[in-house]
Please model this.
Amino acid sequence: MDAVTEMDATSPFDLSEAQRAIAEMARNFADARLAPHALDWDERKFFPVDVIRETASLGMGGIYVREASGGSGLSRLDAALIFEALATGCPAIAAYISIHNMVAWMIDRYGDQSQRDRFLPDLVSMKTLASYCLTEPASGSDAAALTTRAQSDGDAYVLDGTKQFISGAGETDLYLIMARTGGSGAGGVSCFIVPRDAAGLSFGANERKMGWNAQPTRQVLLDAVRIPAANRLGGVGEGFRIAMSGLDGGRLNIGACSLGGAQKAVEATIAYMKQRTAFGKRLDEFQALQFRLADMATELEAARVLLWYAAAALDRHAPNATSLCAMAKRVATDTGFDVANQALQLHGGYGYLADYGIEKIVRDLRVHQILEGTNEIMRLIVARGLIADR
Model:
């Protein structure tokens, strides 16, 4: 992929030919390599590492990692197009690829040249897969209250603690871990790169979940894990700021995944309604159901426009980008789940059957309203931004 420069970042409503090609490429991959297997992966709780690694050849291992660092150098809007398209095949796999990209970008953005040289080639090629580790058993929305500790010991740090709800844990190769190096609060947190083979690193059982079954979710357990001081990302006490900056883009991506899953549900519903008859008419001939489809499509389009606008704001480093990303995440994930749930209803009893794929989309999209910051926290971010501006 080449960096897209044709579009004015303040007007993200007319996609360039390059952006349309990027979206089409991602949708073709989703149709060919994700969608045919998504139900099977969900049922078997199978994490398709080999298929995920295939996306690296399409430039998806470092979507917005700089070209100078070996990445694709694309914009956040480009990334939103990619993740929406991938999610039409499987929201759970698309969301994991987003997490991997978030870690790669954080190392590119905040790492020194030695760290970029050491870690990015394998991350961009997806020889190495990554996980993001912020949440703990007793600190979810209150992330700054984390208690995992990193004790400085000469030219090393020793990490102790537990991370909770970590996507890819146990299967991935690199863990970006937020740990406390100072006092309480956000200013006492630093960020560390921990390889899977570090002594003292282990994992809990794969969680039994409502959705997202195609990617593992485990605790990450740190028992006197010793890593070189050179594996600290950024300065001492900068970890929370680094973690939050990564989440701005992550929230856009997860919103895009919600739109993609819901879009696939709408497409499947239209096809179903053209085939199913009741009271002597096809379902798509009933005006009441046509109106419902129209509302679903309208709500998706409105959420998409807000998400693209927020992505453009993040690309140009607008001062209100964090608030816009929170708005877009809240709207896109709420809308995506609601539209998918309506699609299930329009399928009637068949929507509740696994074979039709709609109930999987509903299950996968539900967690998007919780992760990358709950939608209640998104409202808090927006409200704080409004109050601070007055």
Remarks:
- DSSP finds eleven helices and ten strands in the chain.
- Residues 162 and 346 are 43 Å apart (CA to CA).
- Confidence is low (pLDDT under 50) at residues 1-10.
- The beta strands are 130-133, 149-153, 156-167, 174-180, 189-195, 201-203, 217-228, 232-233, 277-278, 281-282.
